[in-house]
Amino acid sequence: MVGLATLFTAVFAQPTPTQAAEKTYTFYTDVGYAPFEFADKNNKYVGIDIDLIHAIGKAEGFKATVKPVGFNAAVQALEAKQIDGVIAGMTITPERQQKFAMSKPYYPTGPVAAVKKGSNIHSLKDLRGKRVAIKTGTAAADYATSIQKKYGFTTVTFDDSNNMYQDVITGNSVACFDDQPVLQYSIATGMKLQIVAKPETVKYYGIALNKGRNDDLLAKINAGIKKVKADGTYDKIVAKYLGNGTVASQQKKNAKTQESDRSFFGLLKENRTTLLDGLKETLYLTVVAIVCATIVGVLIGLLGMMPNRLARGVSTTFVYIFRGLPLLVLALFVYTGIPSLTGTKIPAFIAGIVTLTLNEGAYTAAFVKGGIDAVEIGQMEAARSLGLPWRKAMRYVILPQGLKIMIPSFINQFIITLKDTSILSVIGLMELTQTGKIIIARNMEGFKIWTMVALIYLIIITLLTWLSRWVEHRVNN
């Protein structure tokens, strides 16, 4: 009886499948849109949106993985069905409701204009003939565009809020448009801007999902929003970042505790671990990509040297296409374009490696062909006259000589690949450039952080340049 009781208890005490494994959904967010999403002094992502989606998940029994990639990249990833949703201070608009399944509203907002502190711009009428900064894909940008003719200003577009704000502070643009709570928070934490116009319309933020999903995620999110508002969790989250209705007192206090030393070396000490993590990702991307690109480039280059018209045509076409495409366009095509067509998700890291492999492989193929062509033509003729077939002549006679010529180009391509990894920040890879963006989104110290990032790149590239010269010297002597 004891044995049966024990067995009965063991069987019926096991968690049900629903209890055993909570469903995990992936949400993308912006790299910096305080107080909704931003990195704190420990470079951990926090904010109203981050806390809210986790609270909704807890209320509805699912887990949310939130990744900062930038607003534009997040929206494109959602369009390509690479992710489950976007929570990034995303205003609910008719256009977005046509493309995406938008949740119930969770926060009121409205676009406003801000100018440099002390500016002589006091209203929208003063913008006539001036340049205004906007952020890609935002409702505030749409609002600015809609009134552009009325007030007679021109616009310049940025991918992140910090660069947009800095463009105004440096005087390149006289004003910028952004959502009111975000601008209020930025101003309260030290951004030298001032708001010059109240929002003409009040809109609301929502969480965006793919339309036509065959699960109940939208229903869960809507139910979760209702629950966290009803039980007071929502009010606690908002108060945590915005205080009791006021931004300035709460956030100025936070700013002082978060950034005690804003000198160059103080910021370097505070962010060195994060910068090193970004550097590690950059080097990892570079090494994997250069290995893949070298293999592809050598094969395509050799195809271009074969005594076969089809093989040469394939080689020429490959080099022509992938050397001609801008790397940014290629990255977005691989990461968002192909999944949109095929419905198959491509992880950001894989998309980055494929992008670099195709682009750098095309350049590698070009200098492989050049290196082989640089070998005196009489070498091949002599090898063939001795009875060696084309492949053996290429393998034992031409390639050993051509490789000596190519080695400096291989190392130079490694340097180029290292620099090109910075473009992959557009698809959200956490390499060195993306890491810099995230740090700046928190502390707004663009000049100092970009100086650190530039110095890191410069040191690595200098070391690789010395290596290239040393190898070239050893090969030629």
TrEMBL record:
Domain ABC transmembrane type-1: 279-468
InterPro entries assigned: AA_ABC_transptr_permease_3TM, ArtM/GltK/GlnP/TcyL/YhdX-like, Iontro_rcpt_C, MetI-like, MetI-like_sf, Solute-binding_3/MltF_N
Pfam family, one: BPD_transp_1
Keywords: Cell membrane, Membrane, Transmembrane, Transmembrane helix, Transport
Compartments, as annotated in UniProt: Cell membrane
Membrane-spanning parts: 283-306, 318-338, 449-467
Membrane topology: Multi-pass membrane protein
PROSITE patterns per UniProt: ABC_TM1
Signal peptide: none
Record NCBIfam families: HEQRo_perm_3TM
Family recorded in the similarity comment: Belongs to the binding-protein-dependent transport system permease family.
Protein name: ABC transporter substrate-binding protein/permease
